[in-house]
């Protein structure tokens, strides 16, 4: 019988940043001052920061070396052309419009493609994406498979689009009123769940003859490519880079927040193959982001991004990246902690409905759980439930999604396995005294993307 060997991260640590552990009394006061919203905590008061993987990765020595080669010319920076070349090589898209981050790309795409009254089908909403679609006059409709809404389903590709649901909306709205399909890899709000290559292909083959664009939210498509390699027949012997290139061939373009897969702290882009779309977008970027050869980024950031694009598809890197997430998730499963399965690519998602089963959804159990975890351990996570879902535009009541989750999001190349052990122990300890938890009430709500800035109080003081 072969003994399973331990694995280690495929890098050495050159630079360290000290972190501090605070007292429980300090954290009780800190979370109260933050309105029980982990987004409003000061980062220096956080021990292990699992709020997001967006812009929180550690760059490599090669990327840092590239930062020293920043061409800060206002127009025609050489670093833009390096970035453009990397995107064409790795993703295969012809045109590149740089933006400061992913939501800048979402804004420009929505401005260019959506007309008032349009319908945008997608595989589960994402907060900023849906808001940009609505502000442009469109309406998002969810066409993800039903299994995505079930945290206990073991379906290997819960990010798949349900073709029957998609056909229904095409028949109902008409192809002329569907500007594009909003198709995300490793669907965030579903628990980081991937899409199969067969589904990418089928959606593209359905939409192409109808003149409906397929636009990827490619933020975590490298991770999605890894899951295809591991789970889908016929891909085990292909590299992540080969799989990613094939995935991209089943789309007309993408929005990208490079702050995730591409291992940088800022940056993104909109990419496409259509010449007319490009001409609209390249003009719009000048209005909202910056000149078409920097799009809100410094030259040094574009160089780090160009190099990060190429590093991201190294098989050893992505295997270790997803492996660390799986390591944390398995530790929690072994102790009976309710999480979304299968374990996703960028985070472990606690199922707050089962974790705090005694709290009704209108008491914001996921928000309460994220706050309680910080008080318990100094670990910062984030809510992905009723607060993130926002309000129904017609009734004014809260939207109540089937998934009420807390996301433990793992930054890339930042934490060690020991940090994952501490996180697991903290969550397990909190789960053992879960019946003591108290719900929250919302006392301040901004009009847009409320989860970033909303404030709460504990019920009963």
Textual characterization of the structure:
- By secondary structure, this protein is α/β, with parallel strands linked by helices.
- It has 16 helices and 14 strands.
- It has helices spanning 24-33, 61-67, 78-90, 102-113, 127-135, 163-173, 197-207, 221-231, 240-249, 275-288, 299-312, 315-334, 352-355, 365-377, 386-389, 417-432, and strands at residues 48-49, 95-99, 119-122, 139-142, 180-184, 213-217, 253-257, 268-272, 347-351, 379-380, 382-384, 405-409, 440-444, 455-458.
- Strand 5, helix 7 and strand 6 form a beta-alpha-beta unit.
- It is globular and about 60 Å long.
- The mean pLDDT is 97.
Question: What topology emerges from the helices and strands here?
Answer:
Elements: H1 24-33, E1 48-49, H2 61-67, H3 78-90, E2 95-99, H4 102-113, E3 119-122, H5 127-135, E4 139-142, H6 163-173, E5 180-184, H7 197-207, E6 213-217, H8 221-231, H9 240-249, E7 253-257, E8 268-272, H10 275-288, H11 299-312, H12 315-334, E9 347-351, H13 352-355, H14 365-377, E10 379-380, E11 382-384, H15 386-389, E12 405-409, H16 417-432, E13 440-444, E14 455-458
Parallel strand pairs: 1-10, 3-4, 5-6, 6-7
Antiparallel strand pairs: 2-8, 7-8, 9-12, 11-12, 13-14
Helix pairs in contact: 1-14, 2-11, 3-11, 4-5, 4-10, 8-9, 12-16, 14-16
């Amino acid at each position: 019988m072969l003994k399973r060997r331990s694995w280690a991260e495929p890098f050495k640590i050159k630079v360290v940043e000290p972190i501090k552990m605070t007292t429980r009394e300090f954290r009780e006061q800190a979370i109260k001052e933050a309105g029980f919203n982990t987004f409003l905590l000061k980062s220096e008061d956080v021990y292990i920061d699992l709020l997001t993987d967006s812009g929180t990765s550690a760059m490599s020595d090669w990327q840092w070396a590239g930062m020293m080669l920043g061409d800060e010319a206002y127009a025609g920076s050489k670093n833009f052309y390096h970035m453009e070349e990397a995107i064409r090589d790795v993703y295969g898209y012809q045109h590149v419009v740089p933006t400061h981050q992913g939501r800048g790309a979402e804004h420009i795409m929505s401005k260019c493609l959506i007309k008032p009254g349009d319908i945008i089908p997608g595989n589960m909403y994402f907060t900023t994406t849906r808001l940009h679609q609505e502000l442009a006059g469109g309406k998002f409709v969810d066409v993800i498979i039903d299994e995505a809404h079930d945290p206990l389903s073991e379906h290997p590709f819960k990010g798949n689009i349900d073709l029957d649901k998609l056909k229904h909306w095409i028949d109902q709205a008409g192809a002329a009123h569907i500007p594009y399909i909003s198709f995300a890899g490793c669907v965030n709000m579903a628990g980081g769940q991937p899409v199969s290559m067969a589904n990418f292909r089928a959606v593209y083959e359905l939409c192409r003859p109808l003149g409906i664009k397929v636009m990827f939210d490619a933020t975590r498509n490298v991770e999605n490519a890894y899951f295809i390699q591991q789970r889908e027949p016929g891909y085990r012997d292909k590299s992540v880079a080969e799989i990613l290139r094939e995935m991209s061939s089943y789309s007309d373009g993408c929005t990208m927040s490079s702050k995730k897969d591409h291992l940088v702290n800022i940056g993104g882009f909109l990419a496409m193959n259509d010449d007319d779309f490009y001409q609209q977008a390249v003009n719009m970027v000048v209005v909202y982001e910056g000149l078409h050869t920097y799009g809100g980024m410094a030259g040094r950031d574009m160089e780090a991004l160009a190099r990060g694009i190429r590093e991201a598809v190294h098989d050893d890197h992505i295997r270790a990246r997803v492996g660390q997430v799986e390591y944390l998730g398995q530790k929690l499963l072994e102790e009976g902690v309710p999480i979304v399965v299968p374990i996703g690519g960028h985070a472990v998602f606690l199922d707050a409905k089962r974790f705090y089963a005694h709290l009704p959804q209108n008491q914001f159990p996921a928000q309460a759980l994220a706050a309680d975890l910080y008080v318990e351990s100094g670990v910062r996570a984030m809510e992905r439930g009723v607060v993130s879902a926002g309000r129904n535009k017609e009734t004014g009541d809260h939207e109540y999604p089937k998934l009420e989750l807390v996301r433990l999001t793992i930054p890339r190349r930042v934490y060690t396995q020991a940090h994952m052990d501490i996180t697991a122990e903290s969550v397990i300890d909190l789960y053992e005294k879960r019946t003591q938890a108290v719900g929250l009430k919302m006392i301040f709500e901004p009009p847009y993307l409320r989860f970033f800035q909303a404030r709460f109080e504990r019920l009963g003081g």
